[in-house]
Design goal:
The structure holds four protein chains of four kinds. By secondary structure, chain A is of the alpha/beta class. Chain A has helices at about 1-5, 60-65, 95-100, 115-125, 130-145, 150, 165-175, 195-205, 220-225, 250-255, 260-265; strands at about 20-30, 30-45, 45-50, 75-85, 85, 100-105, 185, 215, 230-235, 240-250. Helix content of chain A is about 35%, strand content about 25%. Chain B has one domain: MetI-like fold, CATH 1.10.3720.10. Classes of the chains: A alpha/beta, B mainly alpha, C alpha/beta, D mainly alpha. The interface of B and C includes residues 62, 145, 243 and 250 of B.
Chain lengths: ~270, ~290, ~280, ~270
């Protein structure tokens, strides 16, 4: 926790702790490689945008981090992936604990078909928080953090599915951060939202610098430039996705090193 | 990041997995158990009489001296009524399903669906009674004795029609929702979209519907007992009486003992083998089973 | 013993005691004494009558429970012999090789040859019936009727009606050229009623009931004697049979009491209502 | 031209189905209605079924169904859960179980009757009893329950499972709080479908639950199910037809009620899923 409370500085002098490190990460679906040989290090408290055309393994990469890959029949992950130094991929590691440390926001908002309150209460309860008042406190804090508190305060017991698209997505974000994760994975969180709702979510991400390590998949290059401080470019090579370039967002967009990246960010390819 | 006192969740999940896994194995074993048990009961006959005599004996006279155990005429009768009924109910059911998805006004489609579902639930005894009291006398006036393969085929066709309609409706409606707008946007005619797109796309489901109805037809007992005439002779025409394997069991089980009883179980074994073959066939053809 | 079990009631009756007598496989070791429960198995012709008598007996003797299961006369013989059932139901006289059992007639029944009501043939000789059932006569024209093929209705294997019929006419089942094989009486009656060219044989009582209730069948006389419950009762009808309850040895206790009741005049109305012929 | 032909065939087929329906149901109504009355429903059969009613038969039927569903439902539900939630980790076993259930669904009811008679009644010594009949029907209803429940579980959107997994919910919580509630209408619909199928069953019951038409006293008693009663009245009792048809009418009415209830459930379900 102490790490989280450290103020982030713009100067790069104190080397930030590594949150995530992937070495030669490869994902296969029924034997066919979808993502091959990814090496990527993500600093704690940073926001990393994953960009690239569809089908080049960005979501597969994200799914490895909280092992959603386990849910997919025939999916095999090899290589190593560590989270704050702990191996993620070993079978013996505690899956539930991992997923509580790594929150995930999906392309389509997926609140549980329960009340707004139960949406947050259920995971908190699962998390072992017995005290109702503590749960209520966390619920309020999470909803305030995503700016939803005022909008839903008088209808916490209404069904979550009655919320608008943007509200649903913010509820899902609240559900994730209520568990106080270290890492947040966002898989095109704004692709189904209007510009207004998108802006609200981008504002949230801005506020998270230093607090959560964020990995966000997006097809919106402008969004990647707005919210991230690092960008990773994925591309399809020899039938499998791979990471072609990774670096600070400003530098990458200004002076791409890889020709593929240059074409992509200039809108000439992908 | 501690996990404060709670029963370790993975244990609960392991238990859940273990218990449901056990249930799944048990469910999977039921059919094996049934097959083995029927085999066990049939064994004395298979051993004493020999499997060959069940197809080569002069006839079915399990109580005569010497006893005769030819099941072949009944096997042929079972297959014949099933095929005949499928020939009638297959197209009729398919067109009714098409009518429900493509032609019927919604209210009529709903009514039709309700009617068909009700028909699917009507017990076979009622179909059999209707056949015995209404249909067979009509046939008898035309081609005596009336109780015949044809009567069996007609009653059976009516009985499996609901299964056929519901299963093919499910198959067509499933793909229709996906392709309807696309097809309409491409300017297909109604029949064009039906024969060109929908039916080919629903092929797996339709083939499943066909095979599901076939197993139902093959297994029908009471109605066949009431209308086919039950003569254990090789049927030589549509108007000849015939006895199905199922009717043979229902007709004689209550009275059968010892080897006669075991011989009836041989018939049951034969039926089970037929169904197994059908399911295998369905799998081989890549059919999608729908349990309508 | 009986009263013990009766007062001990349904509660105390151990499950095992219920399960054992039901072992139908013939592995029971017999010797079961009468208890508060009686098990009757056998002929489907006798079963409805036995069931009705049992109901009335139960009403008079609270705590007694009598289960009636059908399965054909031969099952009645086997079960009574093995002790699986306390009492067997057999719809024919006992055969010489069944002398280990004791038969107790509770009613009489005859087997009537029936044809469709519109059939002008009024009488068939035994030889004609034999020829018809052997398939040697195939149209009604040959026996003085219309030009119409004969539909021969036969009973399914294992039923004592069939046995009795074959025995009376000296036929073997393998010789019979049937057009329709039926299970129970009503199926035979419905089949004949629905087919102007049909001939069949069923229980006299059932046929008489149907013929007098607007069902299109007619009973043919046999050897010149009309088929009716009356001729069965006075013993003139040649193709008749006793409906028997059979036991291994003289029945004791509850079984004996029940059989005595079933033979008494108290149940004659039940016998008649099922169109059988009561004992004198 | 082809349009016209398709339309004619479709209308013709539907017309024939409706006509057959009208003929069959009309026949049952016409012959059954005269025998139907309140008294018929609440009194026990007398005079071999020709007089009295079907109260004890209805009660026996309910008992048999209760045993059948009470056994098949937990087993079927657990099997469906395993197939949907855990099976993919053991694809071979999953394939075997699915295959076995497909075959089970196709096994003729008379073979269930043979099996039930030989296994439950004779080998286990349950005799002709409600228990034998109920357990036999349970075997028959099992594949239906598994399939319909499984379809209900599979119809739950994948996002819901992903969301639950991403929140670190245990599978037990996911199942009990999210998936089963969402699949509940399908579960009920499957149960009703199974009941409907069991209700119409004759062949498997004649040789397992038997023939006794009294009020059942315990599950070890033999008892006569409604469809067996209809068969017996129609085929074995002189003059039993009127009450036989009346009983058939009751059975058809019960099936109709079950179908309507299933529909109401399915509609509610589709609304909650969208």
């Amino acid at each position: 926790m102490s790490i989280h409370s450290l103020p982030t500085t713009t100067c790069a002098e104190p080397v930030p702790q590594t949150a995530l490190q992937a070495l030669d990460l490869t994902v296969r679906y029924r034997g066919r490689a979808a993502l091959r040989g990814v090496n990527l290090t993500v600093a704690d408290g940073s926001v990393t945008a994953l960009i690239g055309p569809s089908g080049c393994g960005k979501t597969s990469f994200l799914n490895c981090i909280n092992r959603m890959t386990d849910l997919i029949a025939g999916c095999e992950v090899s290589g190593t992936l560590s989270l704050f130094g702990e191996d993620v991929l070993t079978d013996g590691s505690n899956l539930l604990a991992l997923r509580r440390r790594v929150g995930m926001i999906f392309q389509r908002a997926n609140p549980f078909p329960l009340s707004i309150r139960r949406n947050l209460d259920l995971p908190l309860r699962e998390y072992g928080i017995r005290s109702a008042s503590e749960r209520a406190g966390r619920l309020e804090q999470a909803l305030r953090d995503v700016g939803l508190w005022r909008e839903v305060i008088d209808r916490l017991d209404d069904p979550a599915l009655a919320l608008s698209g943007g509200q649903r997505q913010r509820l899902c974000i609240a559900r994730a951060i209520a568990l106080e994760p270290q890492v947040l994975l966002m898989d095109e969180p704004c692709s189904g939202l209007d510009p207004h709702a998108t802006a609200a979510i981008e504002d949230l991400i801005h506020g998270w610098h230093g607090r959560y390590t964020v990995l966000i998949v997006t097809h919106n290059l402008a969004q990647a430039r707005r919210v991230s401080d690092h960008t990773a470019v994925f591309w399809l090579q020899d039938g499998a996705g791979t990471l072609v370039e990774h670096g600070p967002t400003g530098a990458l967009f200004a002076a791409p090193r890889h020709p593929v990246t240059a074409d992509y960010v200039a809108g000439r390819a992908g | 990041m501690s996990t404060p006192g709670r029963s370790s969740p993975p244990d609960g999940d392991a238990a859940l997995r273990a218990v449901t896994g056990l249930a799944a194995r048990l469910s999977g074993t039921v059919v094996v158990g049934i097959a083995l048990f029927v085999l066990w009961q049939a064994w004395p006959a298979l051993q004493a009489v020999g499997p060959l005599r069940f197809v080569t004996d002069a006839g079915w006279h399990p109580l005569a001296q010497p006893a005769q155990f030819n099941l072949l005429p009944m096997l042929v009768a079972s297959v014949a009524v099933t095929l005949g009924a499928m020939l009638l109910a297959g197209p009729l059911g398919l067109f009714t399903a098409i009518f429900m998805t493509d032609y019927a006004p919604p209210a009529l489609a709903r009514l039709l669906r309700g009617v068909v579902e009700l028909l699917a639930g009507v017990p076979s005894v009622v179909y059999g009674l209707w056949g015995l009291v209404t249909l067979v006398p009509l046939l008898a006036a035309w081609q005596p004795p009336g109780a015949s393969l044809l009567a069996g085929i007609l009653v059976l066709a009516l009985m499996i029609l609901p299964t056929m309609v519901l299963a093919s409706h499910a198959a067509i409606a499933g793909v229709a929702a996906e392709h309807r707008l696309t097809v309409a946007a491409l300017g297909f005619s109604c029949a064009g979209s039906l024969w060109g797109v929908l039916l080919p796309a629903a092929r797996a489901g339709l083939c499943g519907a066909l095979l599901l109805s076939t197993t139902r037809a093959l297994g029908e007992t009471m109605a066949m007992l009431m209308v086919t005439g039950n003569v254990a002779r090789m049927p030589d025409s549509l108007f000849a009486p015939a006895r199905t394997l199922t009717a043979n069991i229902a007709l004689e089980l209550a009275y059968a003992m010892d080897r006669h009883r075991a011989a009836l179980f041989v018939g049951g074994l034969l039926l089970t083998a037929l169904v197994l073959a059908l399911v295998r066939l369905a799998r081989g053809l890549g059919c999608a089973w729908r349990h309508a | 013993m009986g009263s013990d079990a009766v007062s001990g009631g349904r509660r105390a009756r151990p499950v095992i005691a219920m399960l054992l007598p039901l072992l139908l496989a013939g592995c029971g070791d017999g010797g079961k004494a009468a208890t508060g429960k009686l098990m009757l198995t056998g002929s489907s012709t006798v079963a409805p009558l036995a069931l009705e008598i049992a109901k009335r007996y139960e009403a008079d003797h609270p705590g007694v429970r009598i289960d009636v299961q059908t399965g054909g006369s031969s099952r009645g013989i086997t079960d009574a012999r093995s002790g699986v059932a306390d009492i067997g139901m057999v719809s024919r006289a006992l055969k010489p090789d069944e002398s280990d059992l004791v038969a107790h007639a509770i009613a009489h029944d005859g087997i009537a040859i029936i044809v469709h009501a519109s059939n002008p043939v009024t009488e068939l000789s035994a030889d004609q019936i034999r020829a018809i059932y052997r398939g040697q006569i195939a149209t009604w024209q040959a026996v003085g009727g219309p030009k119409r093929p004969i539909t021969v209705v036969n009973k399914a294997e294992g039923r004592s009606t069939l046995e009795l019929f074959l025995q009376h006419f000296g036929l073997a089942n393998t010789q019979i050229h049937a057009s329709v094989v039926i299970g129970d009486n009503e199926q035979g009656i419905k089949t004949v009623a629905g087919n102007p060219g049909a001939i069949g044989y069923v229980s006299v009582g059932a046929a008489e009931y149907a013929a007098t209730h607007e069902v299109a069948i007619r009973l043919l006389p046999l050897d010149g004697i009309p088929a009716s419950t009356v001729t069965v009762k006075d013993g003139r009808f040649p193709l008749s049979r006793p409906l028997n309850l059979v036991t291994r040895g003289q029945p004791q206790g509850l079984a004996g009491d029940f059989i005595a009741y079933a033979r008494s005049a108290a149940v004659h109305d039940r016998v008649r209502s099922l169109y059988f012929v009561p004992l004198d | 031209m082809r349009d016209r032909l398709s339309a004619v065939a479709a209308w013709g087929a539907a017309g024939m189905v409706l006509a057959a329906f009208a003929w069959l149901i009309g026949d049952v109504l016409w012959r059954g209605l005269p025998g139907l009355s309140w008294q018929f429903l609440v009194s026990a059969p007398a005079d071999a079924g020709r007089a009295g009613g079907i109260a004890s038969i209805l009660l026996a039927t309910v008992w048999i169904l209760a045993i059948a569903i009470g056994t098949a439902l937990p087993l079927g539900l657990a099997t469906a859960v395993w197939l949907a939630e855990f099976g993919h980790r053991q694809p071979r076993l999953q394939g075997h179980v699915n295959h076995a259930l497909d075959v089970l669904a196709g096994v003729p009811s008379i073979v269930f009757g043979l099996f039930g008679n030989a296994f439950f009644a004779v080998t286990l010594g349950l005799g002709f009893s409600i228990l034998s009949g109920g357990l036999t029907l349970a075997c028959m209803a099992l594949p239906i329950l598994v399939r319909v429940t499984g379809a209900g579980l599979q119809a739950v959107p994948a996002e819901l499972r992903q969301g639950a997994a991403a929140c670190g919910l245990t599978q037990w919580t996911t199942l009990s709080r999210l998936l089963l509630p969402a699949a509940l209408p399908a579960l009920l619909a499957g149960t009703l479908l199974g009941i409907g199928r069991a209700l119409a069953e004759t062949a498997a019951l004649i040789f397992t639950s038997g023939y006794v038409d009294r009020y059942p006293g315990s599950v070890f008693d033999s008892a006569r199910a409604l469809s067996v009663h209809i068969y017996d009245l129609a085929m074995n009792v002189p003059g039993g037809e009127r009450n036989g048809y009346a009983s058939a009418l009751v059975l058809v009415a019960l099936i109709l009620c079950i179908n309507l209830a299933t529909h109401a459930l399915a509609r509610g379900w589709q609304r909650s899923m969208s």
